Amino acid sequence: MSSRLGLIPFALTMGIYCLIALFLLVPWQASHLVITSLNDLTVDRAFVIAQPELFRSGAQYGPGVLFTYGPWGMLITGLTLPKYYPVIVLLNVIVASIFALAAASTVMKCEAGVLKIAALTLMLATLVAFWTGGIDQGYWLFPSLYVGLYTLSRKQLGLSAGDLALAIAATAAAGWIGLIKFNLFVFGFAIQFIILLVDLKSRRLPSLFLIWLAVTCAAWLAADQDIRNFPRWVLACLDLSGGYSDAMSKGFFKPYNEIVVAILLVIEGCFLAMAWLVAPRIETRAMKISRLAVCVVCGGLAWQHIVGGNQIEQGIGEIFTALWFLFAISPPSIGARSRRLAPTASGLLALVLGIGIVSSCTVLDMPAMSGEVLAAKFNAFFQIIGGRFTAYRTSWEALMASVRESLPVKTDIAGSADIYPQDTAVVIANPQFHYAPRPAYLSLNAHTTALAEANAAYLKSSSPDAVFFQVLSPARSVNNRYPTTADGPSWPELMARYDLHDATPDFLILKKLASPIPFKFVPVSQQNIGWKKEVRLDGGSRLIWAKVHIKPSFVGRVVKLLYKSPHVTLQENLADGTQKEYQIVPALGEAGFLLSPGVFDTASFARLMQTSAADPVDPEKAVTVIQFRTESATSWFWSKTIGLELFELDIASQGVRPVPAAVASLIRLGELQDDVGSCLFPPSPIKAPEVSRPVLLFHAPCSTHIQVPKDVQAVTLSYGLRYIPDPSQPATDGAGIQIAAIGPDQAITENASRYLDPVKRKLDRGEQQITLSWKPGSVTQLRIKFDPGPKNDPIYDHTYISNIEFH
Questions:
Q1: H-helix or E-strand spanning residue 335
Q2: Nearest to 456 by CA among 519, 413, 502, 396
Q3: Which of 245-259, 490-504, 615-629, 680-694 has the highest mean pLDDT?
Q4: d(CA 238, CA 250)
Q5: What are phi and psi of 547, to 5 degrees?
Q6: For position 350, what pLDDT does the model report?
Q7: Per-position DSSP letters for 59-119, written without gaps between them
């Protein structure tokens, strides 16, 4: 390998690039991720934590795991079990080294002088800054782009032994990288397929394609995967990826409005124009078309990230990476026609790239290159070189310990377990459970009909011993999806195969029944309805199941190929007068979901489980009216009619089963939250250090009520007023509570009240209790009211209810 600038400068450049790449791009430092609350367990962290456990257990991608992150996803997430850290670090070192060598070779062999080399180096430094800041998709595409743009352009000039070695190394890296994430596999495959066609046309042995294929298979086998499952994983990922833009879209022109979308289209157009205009000194038309094809693939992937994933910064980063190669292979002089067109394309592209870089900088998580940070990186580097992985072992243990501490699970059940909809760490961190997930192990990503049905089929054939279940709060739900469409087809299976066993502050714990309860779907009606048309339901106390068939029009199908779908919303009225509005993903509506009664929180699901045991549906929560809407001015996208099938979900009666105390408490707190009257803020779950149970914040002034079962004659209400014993912190001036027992005639039969002032009276600190009793049958409802203190200042009056128990 040599360079126009000489062997010594070339070798020196190689060494500098390698040192920088190894230092900045290899995850030498252990992860310091800790979980302090349920809000820390985002959906991204859920799959990041699940990946190492799936790798350890030998879960088979294809039949057992249906997700776009492949078996080597840990390479990009950076989190793994201690025993895999040496392998993950080594593979990252190899990828970073290949990047550095390929980049240095490209820079030093470009057909230009020092100024162009300086420009390429500056552009590369910008890319590395992007990658170290988290916008790293371009980094993982780099080996494929090197082979597809640089190596392919130099083939006609003849590859030196060094060029060929780098091409083979980059091809091998691209093969392994493809099993990190499905879009990386698709990109690598597309590039290699283009190279295969070029080789076949030239009657050459397709050596690079064969190397890529061999390394891909080797990486699959190295992850303890059955090679026969590989096609199933690819097909499942195609299905998942096909529904991604519809499921994850924030709206037709959200988060990017019409102007931004137009600018992005200009980016794509200018990028492809430059791919066509840039021409090495000697080039055939076939090579030009091949280079354009590579850039079309790259532009398509970037567009998918921007439109489907709402990640403009990743899309811009991918295009910028490809532009770096186009600039590197561009000749020092261009033809007359290209000379006229190139400035326009270059100017427009520079403008839109500038806009993209600015938007990218708003999401960069750049590490501060302070002396302390640099010292920590050097220290981690020398520890790894010395074979000391103690920090990595303790980091995983610390993460698991933080999950157990912040989300404790105290139950007598053990064995295999899964968790709905997404918080995988809760199961993985508790050694009494063996993580046995459904194929699409995050309900958010089971967003196609096939994936939702595959998860339901898993419960029929391989249901785990225990299931943790939660209905996401609106704050944690993506795009305000209709709650029962999250793994909707699995809900009847859960109701029929599991019993309420226990609860934590955040989850129900369901225990597998010895034999499932029979259930069936009884057809009720089938009709075609128009948009915005009100459909009245007469479900009463029955469980109503729905299948909704929403199809795009011809124009909509064409637009969907290049863009995405507008949101569909389901508006519904409940018998108690409540109105709700949620997004519904068309594919999930077609898979089927529970429509009535309304299930909007975890407590509602617990009541639904009681319903399956023989209790009737609460008529107040029955859905009475529904209608479907789409975004403003986008009705043209959809067919004019919607197919609506309604069924009764008929679950055989098994008698009333006892409800565990923790579950009963969760249900009653949920009822208090649902039936709240006027409140300063909406009630919300909080953690109070003085109470071991979950508590519900009813910030004074606030009122709520709850229906009283017929066979009880007393209630004990556990409540309190938050107080932090720190004189430097502002505190409450006190708050009052009133509880009233209401008879059938709405008259107050019994009542009690108390005023709490924890700042002045120690006895008022911590959890308090009020007990109220009455004659059997004389009370139908309890009303609870919190009032601010004597100065009527509610700012710090954090009143809460921790339990309500009927006797």
A1: none
A2: 519
A3: 490-504
A4: 21
A5: -125, 125
A6: 60
A7: PPBTTTB--SB-TTTHHHH----GGGHHHHHHHHHHHHHHHHHHHHHHHHTSSS-HHHHHH
